[in-house]
Amino acid sequence: MNELLLVVTIAGERVALAAAAVESVVELDALTPVPRAAPHVAGLSALRSRVLTVIDCKRSLELGDSDCSDGIREAAVVEFDGHHYALIVDLVEDVVEALSEPAPVRAAMGAGWERVAQGMVDTETGPLLLVDVAALIAGTAEAKAA
Amino acid sequence: MDDLIADFVAECREMLEALGGEIVAWEAEPDDRARLDSIFRFVHTVKGNCGFFEFPRLEALSHAAEDALADVRAGRRHPDGNLVSAVLAIIDRIAEMISAIEAGEEMPAGDDSSLIDSLAPGAEGVAAPVAVAVADGQGRASAPRTIRLSVELLDRVMSTVSDMVLARNELARRLRESPTDVPVDGAFERLSAIIADMRDAITRTRMQRIENLFVGLPRMVRDLSAELGKQVLVDIEGGDVELDREMIEMIRDPLTHIIRNAVDHGIEKPAERLKAGKREIGILAVSARQSGNQILIDIHDDGRGIDGKRLVDKAVSAGILEKGDAAQLSPREQLALIFEAGLSTAKEVTSISGRGVGMDVVRSNIERIGGIVEVDSRLGEGTRMTLRVPLTLTIIPALTVSIDGQHFAIPRSAIEEIVRANGESVTLEHLGGAGVATIRGRRVPEVSLAEILGINSAIEERDRTLIVLRPAGGDVYALSVDRIHDHEELVVKPAAPAVMATGLYAGTTLADDGSPILLFDPAGLAQVGGIKLEAQERSARIADGPAAAVSKATAVLLFRALDGSRRALRLAVVDRIEEVAVSTVKDAAGQLRVQLGEAILPLAGAVGAPLGDGKVRLFRLNDGAHEIGYAFAEVIDFATVDNDIIHAERPGEVSGVSLINGEPAELVDAHWLFANHVGAARAAEPMVCRLPSDDPWMQNMLRPIVEAAGYRVVGDEHEGDADLVIAAQGAEVPGEAMKNTIWLRAEPDAAGKKDDSIYRYDRAGLLMALKTAGAGRGK
Prior knowledge:
heterodimer, A: 5-stranded mixed beta sheet, 16% helix, B: Four Helix Bundle (Hemerythrin (Met), subunit A), 6-stranded mixed beta sheet, 23 helices
């Protein structure tokens, strides 16, 4: 059986997340900011009495801020290392089946994409970049530390 | 005691169950180190616990198995089939005995020597196990009304209840928005109250006061120290810190190990202590407190400390450490070697500790729950072990504050006081950009929460509120916040690493309205705010206590006497505290006496006060040669007398009064106590003094003084000779006793020169006369 992928749009680009890692897709309203935290940590939100750490994927990729003016943001909820995170994306599209194993992208991508990319997968709707959730969560801190 | 045994049985059963698979696996593969270790730990635990409960057979069995396994662990012996079978046979026997204990039966009779012998290298196979009748399933004592639940289940219930609270909040919002009937509101109110109750109850199922863990310690230390011939005073603090039940269970063993080690290896024998210039009684201080997102449990003894160099030598000879590396270790790293497996500085193996299990097990147990063990020791001065365990799921009382509309929580344990920045006793100054707040004459560094967080606050500095914080192990500082909101009890969960990386927060929690709140770590705030915290030696009070006693202030134990008065006793004379049944207190041989084990001690402090029924607590006082008991109601505190002492007008149980901790307290005259209670009792053949039986004054007022001076008081009807006669002036005294008579007169002034009588309230004169008469007989 092929792996299922969640297709989302981050910074105008359609990318894929491993669907197995995503618990649910939610719409976030109120965010509690976390002063002094890394820039890609957009804040905290509560989902069913759990605290979600909200990650702004756009900022994690150093591609600017997500537009939060309309107040409602779509986010994919993932659990990583015992903590729950909500990844803010522009749009959640669909779940598709991966038709290939991830293959390295040999062309030069943006620095942010380079860091989070796990490779390119073929789908029915064409090739998509598979994004590593852990790298999104780690954000730029890891890049800086390295 | 029964509780302890039940705990012990439950623990053994659990270990046995867990061990079931390991035993089989070990049998198949005797070289498997991990299996060997867990079996070893089991017998070690059983051995350690048996020491307290007097199960000699269990102890002998487990000790023997432990010895054999220790050899295997140290590589001195190869685990062959015989050894494996012998160990397994012993574990089976232990299981049988534990079943018997659980059923409340007498320990089955039997001889274990064949089992023990079969452990010896080269022994012929295992003797067929002697069948021990175990009534399994029948005739078992009725089980207590408790059940064991998995913590996951509780977690699930708790999370459901939290969801329920959120759903209720949502419903409340909806109800507010739409017009509703009164009955609906009423029903909703009731639902809310029930949910609140339920949440409370569910939360409590997981929380336990750490007291539950501490309550058995004094007894354990007492037994241990008695066995080892040492004197140890246990000082326990912070029992009201609440900790996750599971956490408490996880800490229990490590804590027990550490305390055993402290008593066994740390605290010296009384003679050694005296030689080293310490008090005879070792102090073992156990304290728990909350610090940021951790619970800290300190175990501090004032014993001989750990010799880091010896540890290094041991580690090198045991092959744990390379010689080259050894030279580069810092003192702290040297001490940390005690956590290495198979390393112990104890010279001999005792039944209590000293095999180098213990500390490595302690560390692995604590680390398994995400905690840290730290050790700090000074040779000759003592050792401090600190267990830091995470606060996960612990409930913290917290204060919510806000800055620019955003709410945060501050753990209440760190808050010393809250003052308004524009209050009368507060001045704020800026020196080179740094804030300094002077609060009632005390200068403390001040930081603005807005600055630390990089948030702009709309509120003027003057109008903010200052929270004076004392982070764990640090100095105070003031934090200015916009507004203070509420005290709340929060269930704190660790935050994601990206949030924790700021160093500011201890965790996250959900407020009652379901929105997330960040909990600050006061020490982290200070650090980010650039405040220099000078680490304070928390144990300074304990470590410096004895020295201070010599220099100026006298360390005393403040307590409430049976009659309710506030009294203090010099700490040095208090040997330990005992609790005895009231029935052991008897009026015998002229005074109250209490039976403590084999000894019968004179009992003071109980005269004229009701003992009540049940238990009475008493201090065991020691002057180096004699012991007496002193009954009291409760211990208030340790304190020092640094105020002037107003001396009592005449000697008595209370030598004076002084202000201690701001309130007057009577100082108990230990010398007087011993003089009165021991002096009389010690005279091998007390001298006899005759007092007129029909003179109430003599009997009531004089008699105690005479008895205190070491006389046995008899009445007129006494047939034999009296060494001394006391009579009122003018009374008739038989001729032959005349020369040994003390005459008392009722008037202060003597009638004339020839009058050698003594005024009856001339205490000094009386005592002198009593003494002279006693000395006269001695010749």
